[in-house]
Backbone:
């Protein structure tokens, strides 16, 4: 059996530590950290994710301010709310749940968030800082969560051949930039126009898959004893949630693998808390959060 990278368990351990950390700020007389969560519309999956984020905030002692806006909200109304939250000194982080309804320009919304409050790290300034190796930006939650998980399990990344499948702005691109930081690993990014996916994935010491296609990755596509990180969240017709990797088919060939659910997803949520605390720490004259140090 491979090592199962248990993101659920690790996220719970980290949340307990974050709870103690927040208690220490409160006992110094500081205010509670606060995260504003904006949800536009009523997509069922988005509602589930937002609820998870809010529950996790409450557990560690971060106030979560909910803004549940109707599907009919205009872009101008959303931009006005963001402007108000940007100017509110008691709000540390702002998260706009994606995807947004199609009548709203997502990029314009992301760029309206004060980059210092951009807990998702999606603002071009934060993406640019990650791309240029500057350490004072915010790292997107899924890549940060994966990095923390790899380090926790003492999986070596230095000089490894990493293959990232999926080139999205929220996972694939920032993940590849993180592995490239300090010239840590050799990175290949594959996407829907990659000519022969298997030629690339077969060479990966660490394979990260973030596409959204059940069973995309089978045993013939992975290298023996490699590490497989599955970011996919696919809901099947029977309600079951599976990743992009055919877990049962691949598991006996690899040395470590993340399950879905219980792998990357919970690490994404815990990274949102870490990013919120990091912003709060900087605002109160502390160093960035140690878990954001790459
Ligand atoms: N602005 C923004 N930031 C995000 O970070 C963001 C977003 N929008 N939109 C949607 C995606 C998706 N995402 C997940 C978070 C947690 C789980 C998670 O906790 N998954 C659990 C449970 C899965 C389930 O039951 O649905 C697991 O994998 O074990 C999954 C996916 C954050 N996203
Ligand atoms: Mg994310």
Residues:
């Amino acid at each position: 059996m491979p090592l199962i990278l248990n993101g659920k368990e690790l996220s719970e351990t980290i949340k307990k530590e974050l709870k103690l950390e927040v208690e220490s700020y409160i006992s110094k007389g500081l205010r509670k950290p606060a995260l504003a969560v904006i949800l536009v519309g009523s997509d069922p999956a988005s509602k589930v994710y937002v609820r998870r984020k809010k529950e996790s905030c409450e557990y560690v002692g971060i106030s979560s301010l909910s803004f549940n806006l109707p599907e009919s909200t205009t872009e101008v109304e959303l931009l006005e709310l963001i402007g108000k939250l940007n100017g509110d000194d008691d709000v540390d982080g702002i998260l706009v749940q994606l995807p947004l309804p199609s009548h709203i320009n997502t990029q314009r919304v992301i760029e309206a968030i004060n980059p210092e409050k951009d807990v998702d790290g999606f603002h071009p300034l934060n993406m640019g800082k990650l791309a240029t190796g500057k350490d004072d930006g915010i790292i997107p939650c899924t890549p940060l969560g994966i990095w923390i998980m790899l380090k926790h399990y003492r999986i070596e990344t230095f000089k490894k051949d990493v293959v990232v499948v999926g080139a999205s702005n929220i996972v694939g691109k920032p993940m590849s930039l993180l592995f490239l930081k300090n010239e840590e690993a050799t990175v290949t990014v594959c996407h829907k126009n990659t000519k022969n996916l298997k030629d690339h994935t077969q060479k990966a010491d660490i394979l990260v898959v973030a596409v959204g296609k059940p069973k995309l990755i089978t045993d013939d596509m992975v290298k023996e004893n490699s590490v497989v990180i599955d970011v996919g969240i696919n809901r099947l017709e029977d309600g079951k949630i599976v990743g992009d990797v055919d877990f049962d088919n691949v598991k006996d060939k690899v040395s470590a693998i993340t399950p879905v659910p219980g792998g990357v997803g919970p690490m994404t949520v815990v990274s949102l808390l870490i990013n919120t605390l990091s912003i709060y720490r900087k605002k109160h004259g502390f160093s960035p959060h140690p878990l954001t140090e790459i």
Notes: The CA atoms of residues 38 and 46 lie 11 Å apart.
